[in-house]
From TrEMBL, chain A:
The lineage of its organism: Bacteria, Bacillati, Actinomycetota, Actinomycetes, Kitasatosporales. It is found in: Cell membrane. This is Iron ABC transporter permease. Keywords: Cell membrane, Membrane, Transmembrane, Transmembrane helix, Transport. It comes from Streptomyces tabacisoli. Its main location: membrane. Belongs to the binding-protein-dependent transport system permease family. FecCD subfamily. GO terms for molecular function: transmembrane transporter activity.
From TrEMBL, chain B:
It comes from the Bacteria. It is a multi-pass membrane protein. Keywords: Cell membrane, Membrane, Transmembrane, Transmembrane helix, Transport. The chain crosses the membrane at residues 31-50, 85-103, 115-133, 139-157, 169-188, 256-276, 296-317, 329-346. InterPro entries: ABC_BtuC-like (IPR037294), ABC_transptr_permease_BtuC (IPR000522). GO terms for biological process: siderophore-iron import into cell. It comes from Streptomyces tabacisoli. GO terms for molecular function: transmembrane transporter activity. The keyword Transmembrane helix applies. This is Iron ABC transporter permease.
Length: 337, 362
């Protein structure tokens, strides 16, 4: 990223401010747009002065929780993707492609089907466990053998784990028909119908994940130079990978438990952020945390108005917007095999 | 290689020459033996498939039914098990050949229709059709063939950049697979609960309730495609050479590759239409075939036989393991196939990629 040394700080601060402004706009859009369009002035009115008009009730009761959850999930997935790309030194790493989201899904399915757990605080732990096991498995598969964890091996390892986990899920859902009805709506990845209680349940986990991830920012920078250089700079490579991986797993678990497996945010956002502020993780991580929610909220808002009166879930919109992105990425870069 | 003058008379090691009139064929000895053994195993599995079930029926009775003699077990064997088995055979063979062709072109054992988005494309369109009330199985095959072909065409188109780079192809395929899967889940939420259940089972790949209605069109399609498969068996050899050699020999690589992939996609989509995307058969069968025969190319006949064997045995187990609950056969093939794929990745050396036509991009 060719940034002039003198202008570095100013340009990056400017970029962060611009991203923050974009986030505010996305939040406003998310509050104002939907089956019932509400003017921004009315939105502010509802937020600041209360009131009991229909518009105010819609904004406060439905859209505020949904938007806040969107901000949290978007930030969580974007951070997870950034860290995974840093740890694996691999441009196409992301929780979905690596099978980590699917791992969290299986945890949730098993909790719903066999333990009768139907609350988020109940199954978030299963989501963590599933995500963690899948993450370790994929990395172990890709890193073994010759050549280490190349992009292709990681993607294929993820595909294999995905397929295996999907077959487990299907086996459970065919034998436990009652679980399917609950699960099929959650599986799509959506922000609709998320209420304020959810926010109270997920913020502690989100905080833990963010702290873990930020603590390895310097280590990820060193790792980008190669393992040997990182060791020479006095970084404990293994510790950086484990702590970062743990952070990414927790964040993925939070995102998946709260909104279902939402694809491609973790893949696309780190690249956009890198294009704006360069590859220094101390800038990259905050930037990703700002851009992620913008992308998710905009996808969610578009999904609300594409096919009225029904909604296209955010998870589907991000996937549809993410494919062109991935294609461009793979075509532009010669991804080493 | 020998001198050009000697080539006509020299027989490569491990090959026998078959003469039929004036035509001569080189036959790989080991491959022929393996194919024969696979055929015997397949016959045995088919017999087992017809005998075993809710009620066990002796081989003697099964033969009576098969040869058209009157028998009290006509209903169970002839009407319930036999057509379902035939669908399994055809689907497995189609997946086996499709996998062999696509893996040959991608030069990568890991490129198979269920990883690069073809199966997901077929699924997405089919589940959409189910959701919008097209639940009769008569039309579904056509719908899913269309879906698979379109998905494959898109992946091919986007992966093409002055040549087909195997790695790019696989990565873009995986991306498409993910996106199409999410579209499928979207349609799952649109229909009512019963449609969702039907779609869920179909998506895993199941032979439940399949019969002559699915077997006939599939059999016809395979018959019609037989000459193409014969061509593919020859064309395969040139594609598995390195690019420079093949081009020097006057092979139009681009066209041959496209033809092979197209044939593979059509076969995979046909099979998906009949039984849903039975995961991993297309990956497993060619790989096992190649390892057992030790030939340079993936042998098509053995791949077809092994594919059929995997699906028939898999469905037999899926019917009986958790009876009375019947699992979709796809759950079983995935449970066996995914670990195998993982083992392949662990053992894989640096994947060979075609570098000759990358259009100057490093």
């Amino acid at each position: 990223m060719p940034v002039r040394p003198g202008a570095v700080g100013a340009a990056r601060v400017g970029a962060l401010v611009a991203a923050a402004v974009a986030l505010v706009l996305a939040v406003l859009l998310s509050l104002a747009v939907g089956a019932r369009a509400i003017a921004p002035s009315a939105v502010f009115d509802a937020l600041l002065h209360g009131g009991h008009s229909n518009a105010a009730e819609v904004v406060r009761g439905l859209r505020v929780p949904r938007t806040v959850v969107g901000v949290m999930v978007g930030a969580a997935l974007a951070l997870a993707g950034t860290v995974l790309q840093g740890i694996t030194r691999n441009p196409i790493a992301d929780p979905g492609i690596l099978g980590i989201s699917q791992g969290a899904s299986v945890g949730v399915v098993l909790a719903i089907a066999y333990l009768g757990i139907h609350t988020l605080t109940g199954y978030v732990w299963f989501a963590f466990a599933g995500a963690g096991i899948a993450a370790v498995a994929v990395y172990a598969i890709a890193a073994s053998g010759r050549g280490g964890a190349t992009p292709v091996k990681l993607a294929l390892g993820g595909a294999a784990i995905n397929a295996l986990l999907v077959s487990v899920t299907t086996a459970v859902l065919t034998t436990k028909a009652s679980a399917l009805d609950e699960f099929r709506f959650w599986q799509v990845g959506s922000l609709s119908g998320r209420d304020a209680d959810l926010i109270g349940q997920i913020w502690p986990f989100l905080l833990v994940g963010v702290v873990l991830v930020l603590s390895v920012a310097r280590g990820l920078d060193a790792l980008a130079l190669g393992e040997d250089v990182a060791k020479g700079l006095g970084q404990r490579v293994a510790t950086v990978r484990i702590v970062g991986g743990l952070g990414a797993t927790v964040l993925t678990g939070v995102g998946v438990a709260a909104a279902g497996p939402i694809a491609f945010i973790g893949l696309a956002v780190p690249h956009i952020a890198r294009a704006v502020v360069g590859s220094d993780h101390r800038w990259l991580l905050p930037m990703a945390a700002l851009i992620g929610p913008v992308m998710l909220l905009v996808s969610d808002t578009i999904g609300r108005i594409v096919f009225p009166p029904s909604e296209v879930p955010a998870g589907v919109m991000t996937a549809l917007l993410g494919v062109p992105f991935l294609v461009t990425l793979v075509r532009r870069k010669a991804v080493p095999a | 290689m020998k001198e050009a003058g000697e080539v006509r008379r020299v027989r490569p090691a491990g090959y026998a020459v078959l003469r039929a009139g004036r035509a001569r064929f080189l036959v790989h000895r080991r491959a022929s033996v393996v194919a024969a053994v696979c055929a015997v195993l397949l016959a045995a599995s088919c017999l087992a498939y017809l005998c075993v079930g809710e009620t066990f029926i002796g081989p003697a009775e099964v033969f009576k039914v098969l040869t058209g003699q009157p028998s009290p077990d006509e209903l169970v064997v002839g009407t319930l098990r036999e057509p379902r088995m035939v669908v399994g055979l055809l689907v497995g063979a189609a997946f086996g050949i499709a996998g062999a062709l696509i893996q040959t072109v991608a030069r990568n054992p890991l490129a198979s229709p269920d990883i690069i988005g073809i199966s997901q494309g077929a699924s997405a369109v089919t589940v959409a059709a189910m959701t919008f009330g097209l639940s009769s199985y008569a039309y579904l095959p056509y719908v899913s063939v269309a879906g698979g072909v379109v998905a494959a065409a898109l992946v091919y188109l986007f992966a093409w950049r002055g040549g087909l780079h195997a790695t790019r192809f696989v990565l873009i395929g995986i991306g498409f697979a993910i996106a199409l899967r999410s579209v499928t889940t979207l349609f799952m939420t649109k229909g009512d609960y019963l449609v969702a259940q039907q779609a869920q089972i179909w998506m895993t790949g199941s032979l439940n309730g399949r019969g002559w209605a699915e077997a006939r069109p599939l059999a016809w399609a395979l018959l019609i495609l037989l000459p193409c498969v014969a061509w593919a068996a020859r064309a395969q050899r040139t594609v598995s050479l390195d690019d420079d050699t093949a081009t020097a020999l006057g092979v139009r690589l681009g066209r041959v590759r496209l033809g092979l992939v197209a044939l593979g996609v059509v076969l995979a989509s046909l099979a998906t239409g009949a039984a849903g995307p039975v995961d991993f058969v297309a990956l497993l069968a060619p790989q096992i075939a190649r390892r057992v025969t030790r030939t340079a190319q993936i042998p098509l006949v053995t791949s077809a036989l092994l594919g059929a064997l995997i699906v028939v045995v898999g469905d037999l187990l899926a019917r009986r393991l958790f009876s009375p609950t019947e699992l979709p056969v796809g759950v079983l093939t995935a449970a066996v196939g995914a670990p195998y794929l993982i083992w392949l990745i662990i053992r894989s050396r640096a994947v060979r990629t075609s570098s000759a036509r990358s259009g100057g991009t490093a």
